[in-house]
Write a structure and sequence with these properties.
Blueprint (H helix, E strand, L loop, with lengths): L2 H6 L11 E9 L4 H15 L3 E9 L1 H5 L5 E3 L8 H14 L1 H4 L7 E4 L7 H8 L2 E6 L10 H17 L5 E4 L2 H12 L26 H16 L3 E5 L13 H10 L5 E5 L16 E3 L5 H10 L2 E4 L8 H8 L3 E5 L4 H4 L6 E2 L2 H14 L7 H10 L2 H17 L17 E6 L11 H13 L5 E9 L4 E3 L3 H8 L8 H4 L24 E4 L8 H10 L4 E5 L3 H4 L6 H15 L3 E4 L2 H14 L6 E4 L24 E6 L8 H14 L5 E6 L7 H13 L3 E3 L5 H10 L2 E4 L8 H8 L4 E4 L2 H7 L4 E4 L4 H13 L1 H13 L5 H14 L23 H16 L20
Parallel strand pairs: 1-2, 1-4, 2-3, 4-5, 5-6, 7-8, 7-10, 8-9, 10-11, 11-12, 13-14, 13-16, 16-17, 17-18, 18-19, 20-21, 20-23, 21-22, 23-24, 24-25
Antiparallel strand pairs: 14-15
Helix pairs in contact: 2-16, 9-11, 10-14, 17-31, 20-32, 24-29
């Protein structure tokens, strides 16, 4: 008999043979739904003559002992992160398999979920069947971004493992349709088993605070009924945020009290855990936590119960209330239509729930909801029926021939491709200059791609390898609308410390090799080490290329940057993909590569950066009239020579001297740049002397966006750029921009919204500033052009980059040199040896120009020729 046939058949009265069933869950505490289910399942299996062993991280030992004396408890799992606990649980289960087999090897392992999803792989290894009871993964709505990341990871692990279980049993058709089938990819081995509702008739759970808590709760209920109050029980645990939707109960209660002031809402929470509004505070009665027996008595004493949850895979409290003969209202969501006593009891929102509650309190239920409805419910939701069904499926799965591990079903959806994002600079830079801005915003966009798993890493020069981020680095990376890095926190106990990436790569399911992605400029002298590290692990390497300014305009760059840039550029050339941020940058790279005989990756493209400023929405209107007719011009850019602030300021001061009555002021927004302190000091001195020139220094994006909106126009005086983000960001926010009439700035200006001038000529700059200040019609025309321009956002740019990362193959693998130069270490691709000898290996590669990079003597030009 096939598994599917057995799930539809009546359960046998006795098993064909005694089985050894291992039941795994993170906890076995019977006050929680899945925990209670697993304990009841164990009790049912023992009653049918099977042997049960429980495996968990924490449990109520007394409750477990009533079912089986066989228990493996691994409390150390609770101190581990999501992946660490999954990995440790799978290893421990495999290591203890012989111990579990001492009195008969396990025939089947039942998993209740994390951290035992990988139990399916252990079962494949030892030839045992596996079963997952699917209670569903909770929705992410209302969660903070930092909390969503581990939940997404949990979903990813779940989706990777569900195809490997012999059987998956969702607890409702809602869970089956919305989660089980999409994650498993097939209906084979899937069967819905609805839970029972009669467990309060045989309580398993004692009051956490002892009998006194029960007595106090029942006494409080007695006082209310004696005083003529109408107690309404709020079902389930109260949570102030998330899908449990606890605060909504206060809204419903306020509506009820307006027509039924005698109503009182009983909440299973301690007084300090509740913060009801003043309007309903008198009618909210916290009962604390009570035993099963006391809860059953409370349900029978209440005339009505409410469930305000916005998502449930089953809703045991709703079923419990109805089993005891009580009426319960719930929203028409999740599995509620499958569990509710009658469709009339389902509500479309708080107003309808309050209306029906008042009707039930005043007039009782509609005529069609009577004793027959309760009998039908009780006939459908008996635990004995559920346990018999589970047992039949377990017995069929254990008896079925086991396919070899290689024949295990393939994942319904391919594992997300792992991308290691080198954010060495963006995780430590408190500012937000152009390259860092791109790394942050692109990282955030990559997190939205369901087919990619970005892991943000830093290069550890002393250890010669990549590592996860420390807490303060995660905070820095998240600034200016950057990505919230939850992965690093997952791999560190309590979110502290860092992990070498080598230690976690094997924890990820993957169909393609991970990608090393370099969205920053690497100038720490360790570019070859990065490439060697990636190649030794079979990783393709992709990089964004911003510009060749240290080559083409070396006079604008610090000497250290000029000295290190050729090695960085040649390292990028040895990768598998180069995505330049503009056509001009790609053309310069092609000329440079041809001149110096560098390799050129097969995947080369110009992918223009987006125009969106941070996470700001696109402007739909131009600037409002300036107060007092004052006109503010804003210049955005870090304080460094090539940004040309000195020429702009000189031109602006000449305008003020020529036209002192012109109501015009200039605001400079940008941080100091390393190696340009003299320029920053000069600008600070000018700002002190001239009240109509101000320098803000480093400011946050929200402040900068406000400044752009306050400006009449912006000025970007830079002479040379790889792209020129401040130009398009100004247009995104609906402000015209005055920029250079050459290079990439001229390309950006060509489609409108900009006025161009020769930014090397103070007189030309001054004339352009006067034109914009004097001519309101000119500003209006440019503003309208800016608002009409087709501009892309970070989501669209991220989608293009993500698509290329998903498809990237390794076109230029680095094979170990056949013979290292004298005195140089041979490249050893073994990971342990590589960590110890990485620097020597990179040095050897540096000395072999035909194999990797060579530090080239570069002729430095002062014009745009390369």
């Amino acid at each position: 008999m096939s598994l599917r046939t057995m799930t539809e058949a009546a359960p046998p009265s006795a098993a064909a043979r005694a089985l050894h069933v291992v039941i795994c869950n993170e906890r076995l505490l019977p006050r929680f739904g899945v925990d209670r289910l697993l304990l009841l399942l164990g009790r049912g299996l023992v009653a049918r003559g099977h042997r049960v062993t429980f495996v968990c991280a924490r449990c109520d030992r007394a409750a477990v002992a009533t079912v089986s004396p066989a228990l493996l408890e691994w409390p150390e799992l609770t101190a581990l992160d999501l992946h660490g606990a999954e990995d440790a649980a799978a290893r421990r289960l495999a290591d203890h398999w012989a111990e579990l087999s001492a009195a008969g090897a396990p025939d089947l392992v039942v998993s209740g979920g994390w951290p035992f999803f990988r139990a399916a792989r252990v079962c494949e290894r030892f030839g045992a069947a596996s079963l997952f009871i699917d209670a569903g993964a909770v929705p992410h709505d209302g969660m903070a971004e930092g909390a969503k990341i581990p939940q997404r990871e949990l979903r990813r692990v779940r989706a990777a493992m569900l195809p490997r279980f012999t059987a998956v049993l969702p607890i409702s058709d809602f869970i089956r349709d919305t989660q089980t089938l999409p994650d498993r990819g097939t209906a084979d081995g899937v069967a819905t088993v609805l839970l029972g509702a009669d467990h309060l008739d045989a309580p398993m759970f004692a009051a956490p605070a002892g009998e006194a808590a029960d007595a106090a709760a029942l006494a409080e209920l007695g006082k209310l009924t004696a005083a003529g109050r109408a107690p309404i029980l709020l079902l389930g645990r109260f949570e102030p945020a998330g899908y449990k939707n606890g605060p909504c109960a206060y809204d419903v209660l306020a509506r009820i009290l307006a027509r039924a002031p005698e109503a009182r809402m009983l909440v299973l929470a301690r007084p300090g855990e509740l913060a009801p509004p003043d309007a309903v505070r008198r009618a909210v009665v916290p009962l604390g936590f009570v035993s099963d027996a006391a809860l059953g008595a409370i349900m029978r004493a209440c005339r009505l119960a409410l469930s305000v949850s916005l998502w449930e895979g089953f809703n045991l409290p709703l079923a419990e209330m109805q089993w005891g003969g009580g009426l319960a209202l719930a929203f028409n969501v999740g599995a509620h239509p499958e569990v509710a006593l009658d469709p009339w009891l389902l509500c479309g929102g708080p107003a309808e729930m309050a209306d029906k509650a008042v009707q039930l309190l005043r007039d009782g239920p509609p005529p069609h909801i009577g004793a027959a409805a309760f009998e039908r419910f009780r006939a459908r939701f008996r635990w004995q029926d559920a346990i018999d069904r589970y047992s039949a499926i377990i017995e069929a799965a254990a008896a079925a021939p086991r396919p070899p591990a290689s024949a295990s079903p393939a994942s319904a959806s391919p594992a997300r491709r792992l991308v290691l994002v080198d954010c060495t600079n963006a995780s430590i830079d408190p500012g937000n200059p152009g390259v860092i801005r791109v790394a942050r915003r692109l990282g955030q966009a990559m997190q939205q791609d369901p087919a990619l798993l970005p892991v943000f890493v830093r290069w550890d020069g002393r250890a010669g390898q990549y590592r996860t981020l420390a807490p303060w680095e995660r905070t820095t990376l998240a600034g200016y609308d950057g990505p919230v890095d939850g992965i690093s926190r997952l791999f560190s106990p309590a979110g502290q410390g860092v992990w070498p990436i080598d230690n976690i790569l094997d924890l990820f399911e993957r169909a393609a090799p991970p990608v090393l992605f370099l969205p920053e400029v690497v100038l720490d002298g360790r570019m070859p080490e990065r490439i060697v590290w990636a190649r030794a692990r079979g990783m393709p390497v992709a990089a964004l290329l911003y510009d060749l300014i240290p080559i083409t305009h070396a006079v604008f760059c610090p000497p250290g940057v000029v000295a290190r840039f050729p090695e960085y550029l040649e390292g990028v050339a040895s990768g598998d993909a180069i995505w330049a941020i503009s056509g001009e940058t790609l053309r310069q790279f092609e000329r440079y590569a041809a001149r110096h005989d560098l390799p050129r990756p097969a995947d080369r493209a110009a992918i223009w950066l987006p125009a969106q400023f941070g996470a700001q929405p696109r402007a739909t209107a131009g600037p409002a009239p300036a107060e007092g007719d004052e006109i503010m011009a804003l210049c955005v850019g870090s304080i460094e020579p090539r940004k040309n602030h000195r020429t702009l300021i000189e031109a602006f001061r000449a305008v003020l001297a020529r036209r002192p009555q012109l109501k015009l002021r200039l605001v400079l927004a940008g941080s100091r740049f390393e190696g340009a302190d003299a320029l920053a000091d000069w600008i600070a001195a000018v700002a002190r002397e001239e009240p109509r020139i101000a320098w803000t220094g480093l400011i946050q994006d929200a402040e900068l966006a406000a400044l752009i909106r306050q400006s009449a126009f912006t000025i970007y005086p830079s002479l040379v750029e790889g792209y020129g983000l401040p130009v398009t960001e100004s247009l995104w926010l609906g402000r015209p921009c005055l920029c250079h009439n050459g290079g990439v700035m001229a390309e950006l200006a060509a489609d409108g919204g900009c006025l161009t001038a020769d930014m090397s000529d103070p007189a030309a700059i001054g004339q352009a500033i006067e034109a914009l200040a004097d001519d309101a019609a000119l500003r209006q025309r440019l503003t309208e052009e800016a608002l009409r321009r087709e501009l892309t956002d970070w989501q669209a740019y991220g989608a293009r980059i993500c698509g290329r990362l998903r498809a990237l193959a390794e076109h230029n693998p680095l094979a170990p040199p056949p013979a290292a130069p004298a005195g140089a270490a041979t490249l050893d691709t073994g990971l342990a040896a590589l960590r110890l000898r990485l620097h020597e290996a990179a040095a050897a590669l540096r000395s072999r120009p035909e194999r990797f990079v060579r530090v080239t003597d570069v002729a430095v030009d002062t014009d745009e020729r390369v």
